[in-house]
Amino acid sequence: MENGKLDRGAGCLTVLAPAKINLTLEVFGKRDDGYHALRSLVVPVSIFDTLTLTPLDSGIEVTCELVGLPGENLPMLPEPRNNLATRAALLLKEATGYPGGARVHIRKEIPIGGGMGGGSADAAWTLRGLNSLWGTGLTVEALMELGARLGSDIPAMVYGKAVCMEGRGEKISPISCRWPAGTDWWIVVVNPGFNVPTGDVYRRFRSGLTSTEETYINARFALERGDGKLASASLLNSLEEPVFYKYPLLAILVERLKSAGAAGVLLSGSGASVFAMAANYDHALKIESQVKRDTGSWLWTRVAKIVPDGVMVAHGPLEARV
Ligand code: C5P
Hints:
- The protein contains ten helices and twelve strands.
- It has helices at residues 84-96, 118-134, 140-148, 154-159, 198-203, 213-225, 228-232, 240-246, 248-259, 281-295; strands spanning 4-7, 12-30, 36-56, 60-66, 101-108, 163-167, 171-174, 186-191, 236-237, 264-267, 274-278, 300-305.
- Strands 1, 2, 3, 4, 5, 6, 7 and 9 form an eight-stranded mixed sheet that branches. Strands 10-11-8-12 form a four-stranded antiparallel sheet.
- Helix 1 runs parallel beside helix 2, helix 2 crosses helix 3 and helix 8 packs across helix 9 (248-259).
- Cytidine-5'-monophosphate (C5P) is lined by residues 35-36, 38, 151-153, 168-169, 198-199, 202.
């Protein structure tokens, strides 16, 4: 598993669970099951939670540590037993009949309720990690099917690379990214420190009549070819309207990022995080420092890279394993 490292001495597996952003998110309308039909280009980014999975004789224990996350109004994590990672571990155990248990420790760096799939990433990589640790042998496709039972974003996160996601989120088609050597897409992520509830955003969504087909085609072509300039001009999120209506601060942050020189700015998923595309790493640092100066030091920001193949480079002691 590319994002994991087995420590045979300690008997545990360390897994990096990347956040995602949606370069495009088109919402087409409500389906009979209450969910919305959508199409979205989803890519992993180099902000990740680190999961340490340790085998236990029985039971599932999930613990969590927050690392430099935004705001004093930090939304509380769900109770461990309702945590998506706990539910993922229990589901894998039930689906495979595995008799043992595990401890899952999550070192959280992805903003919570931030539209970057943090909870989904934890669930997805709990499934992938425990499947390795327990030797339960399910395919990635089978794990994606299990993930779909827990949340619409989870199949894409289990796949872990650039994808187009359709249906309510469960239909995943891989995007083959042939980027010229040395191509990097740097982004600046900002988060206001509050949580936007996804269900509420979809409830307030009203479909418009504007066609988004051309933008989608351009964004997809840009992602396949690594054309960051075209991607920056082809960002699209149908949920911006209902989100900015209720949380106007986020629309202001978009304007600040544009004034700071970002090539393209978009709400990530259902928010509250917003990301800005930069021309290169130095440009990203410049945008970050200007938006912090203009907005105030309360704003959580991170410079990160889009990682289309999903392989995370960990910092610090894990660096050696990549
Ligand atoms: O699937 P998940 O639990 O992540 O979705 C959270 C909420 O977002 C759902 O309860 C639903 O209200 C809304 N949603 C939707 N259509 C989708 C995905 C999510 O309406 N395709």
